[in-house]
Amino acid sequence: MTNIKEIKSAHKRLKGFVRETPILNSPFLDEIAGRKVFVKAECLQHTGSFKFRGGWSAISAIKHDERNNGVLAISSGNHAQGVAYAAKSFGIKAVIIMPEDAPTLKIDNTRKMGAEVILYDRLREDREAIGLKVSKERGLTQIKPYDEPLVIAGQGTCGLEIAIQSKMLNISEADVIVCCGGGGLTSGIALALESEAPKLKVRTAEPEKFNDVALSLENGKITRNNSLTGSICDAILTPEPGKLTFPIMNRLCGSGLTVSDDECLNAMYLAFLRLKLVLEPGGAAALAAALFRSDQIKGDSVLVVATGGNVDTKVFSQAIKNYM
Amino acid sequence: MTNIKEIKSAHKRLKGFVRETPILNSPFLDEIAGRKVFVKAECLQHTGSFKFRGGWSAISAIKHDERNNGVLAISSGNHAQGVAYAAKSFGIKAVIIMPEDAPTLKIDNTRKMGAEVILYDRLREDREAIGLKVSKERGLTQIKPYDEPLVIAGQGTCGLEIAIQSKMLNISEADVIVCCGGGGLTSGIALALESEAPKLKVRTAEPEKFNDVALSLENGKITRNNSLTGSICDAILTPEPGKLTFPIMNRLCGSGLTVSDDECLNAMYLAFLRLKLVLEPGGAAALAAALFRSDQIKGDSVLVVATGGNVDTKVFSQAIKNYM
Known about the structure:
The structure is a homodimer of 324-residue chains. With 324 residues, chain A is of the alpha/beta class.
């Protein structure tokens, strides 16, 4: 089980490699939310999302000999880029398993980061089986996206930064809303804040129909989504919370918040206009919750984690056109 | 004449009020430029541009009694917002003189920041005369946009941050390219780096036909642009460098760089895609120079100051559509 000691150890390993992302605010956002809104801009992290933290944390903890064999990840999204870039900075090989219908740009970007991409047929092949086979054959260490203690510890370093930065901003008590997929970042931040800033309470933000964490927290047990497709928030669509992450969230998090895809697009526009930040839909869910679910939030201040900015240009262009 | 002592004094006054903006980078930008590109993201400063530094620096230095009477600025752009927001944070009145044909959004934003906006007719009225009259009548202190020692000192704090951050990033020798209008930021940064990091050499970036600073540096004397309209880089269009800023730039800066409007739009797209930053055309000129004038730059690294992000939504949307 990940604990604060492991997060602090990851924090030491990451020092000088990870970016300490800024916390931004705007009086215009405060006006909409009816309270002060602080935005932790993890979209400015290396590779455009917080995933670099977990990838780097995991790779940096592998024993030297094993690490030199390389790593493997199964992902078509932010985890792929986080692991590929972290591996590159260690000078080791990364193999990324991606569906062959993933956007060309994402495949190209992952390759440009020096990773070998193995494509699979989403309908006919089992990606987990491919991952296992390739890992074994080549002696690669597989880096899971969230249900992995070292990854949770890496994401938790974002929480350590929040604890320090919130003191400097005089935020003593507030909800900390985190865009949530499998729960790696949410559980990591929750553990960090439990130890370092216990009056900051973590809550999740998820899109409608994919609020498995909110439902699981409500039911007190892992609860699966009915749908598996149908939201633009691709970065945070998971069928259910992780087996390692859920017990942590269940113990430490407040009730989950749910927002619509349109509210995420609106939050993207407002982040563009007021903060000069580029967010992807899934990375804007927490800001959307702070702005448009203010009746479900208490206190003078709210802090949100804007988790990523790897958005398709067309989607972004549409978002800012719709709301301008 | 502004000197390093005044910049350090401004830095002390601004502590806790100004944002220390991050320096970002991306391997994809390095590849285009053929060297490491570091981007100081001043678009993330309060009000979306570096202008807050100078505004706050000037207001914080006014004697208490005088300050309470309020301040005045003549600007339709970033200086207006910087001064208005700085005045608001001091709880004092700001009067901003804007042309009546300025975009409604800019007028509204300035008002929402608590400023009183006085509109004038660009063709029939003299804004300087209005500014003088209103200042006198109401006892307001006028804050000039660049030819004012306290403003130059405030902008220079950006240079102090660059000196510290570049050491942490192991950048020992590099060109520092600054998007340049009247030269307040450029001369402030040049003074700060002369003292704190003399191997970082400041150079200006300007749009074609508005490269008055590049021409002035070449001629060794203040040289005026032939054109006064016709570029999308509205934030940095000035007829000629300032009387106070030019001697500093002439003593400390390398040759000026000139880029096209299209190159600025392309740089905006790349900042969107690779850094998750929103830049305005004038705020992207330095990045455009680093990416597309690499033959005129030496060394393994280049640092650019992305000065602002207050871009019209339509212009931004067009930029990312054109280049995606």
